[in-house]
Specification:
Elements (H helix, E strand, L loop, with lengths): L2 E6 L6 H10 L6 E6 L5 H4 L7 E2 L16 H7 L3 E4 L2 H7 L3 H13 L3 E6 L3 H5 L3 H10 L7 E5 L13 H14 L4 E3 L5 H8 L6 E4 L6 H14 L1
Parallel strand pairs: 1-2, 1-8, 3-4, 4-5, 5-6, 6-7
Helix pairs in contact: 7-8, 9-10
């Protein structure tokens, strides 16, 4: 299966930096690439060679939801999909399993692709609750051929920590036992550790944060993924 590499830029890169990124970024054949810029840079990114996803989407078509963006608005802009349920949305903005489900279903119904994020906190892993947490988060997600799941051990996001390839593989295999879809690994993925992670049989790609901001770094990750597809 072709590996999928998704770059989540979080709250980085306005339009000017977005243009500069795409001027320098290169990806080989043999890898699928998705870029997730912030909302203000979506229009500037659409029309590039690679699919563009938003970092969030609301479940309502329209309404009094200040600060939110509907799936229909994204479709009109030419965006092809959205992230939902990123751990930062869960941690800082009150996202729940139920709102993640609603966002995913609305996006899919509008024709968008979805990358739905799941993963355990460090305390949950230490308490032996990883599978219970993943089951709860995964089983609410719709089954759809445009839905991809990203496994993010929350303790490895932006910390420099990375799940060992064996731990990541174990979690991915469990998720696939619950939901038959592509599963990406997210959690401090960088060129130095990508090959060992992506070589695991149930890791279908990566959701990359900080290392996707630099075009040379993300290009390198895409080359590694292509070599393992």
């Amino acid at each position: 299966m072709t590996k999928l590499m998704a770059g989540n830029w979080k709250m980085f890169k306005g339009p000017t930096e977005t243009y500069a990124f795409f001027d320098a970024f290169e990806a080989p054949d043999g890898v699928d690439v998705i870029i997730c810029p912030p909302f203000v840079s979506l229009e500037d990114a659409v029309g590039e060679e690679w699919p563009i996803y938003a970092q969030n989407v609301h479940w309502a078509a329209e309404g009094a939801f200040t600060g939110e963006i509907s799936a229909q608005m994204l479709v009109e802009l030419g965006v092809q999909g959205a992230l939902v349920g990123h751990s930062e949305r869960r941690q800082y903005f009150g996202e729940t399993d139920e709102t993640v489900r609603q966002r995913a279903e609305a996006a899919l119904a509008a024709g968008l692709g979805v990358i739905a994020c799941v993963g355990e906190l460090e305390g949950e892993r230490e308490a032996g609750e990883t599978e219970a947490v993943l089951r709860r988060q995964v089983e609410v997600l719709p089954v759809h051929d445009r839905l991809v799941i990203a496994y993010e051990p929350v303790w490895a996001i932006g910390t420099g920590k990375t799940a060992t390839p064996d731990l990541a593989q174990e979690a991915h295999a469990f998720i696939k036992s619950l939901h038959d879809t592509r599963v990406l690994y997210g959690g401090s993925v960088k060129p130095e550790n990508a090959a060992d992670l992506l070589a695991q049989p149930d890791i279908d790609g990566a959701l990359v944060g900080g290392a996707s901001l630099d075009p040379a770094s993300f290009s390198s990750l895409c080359r590694i993924a292509a070599s393992l597809s």
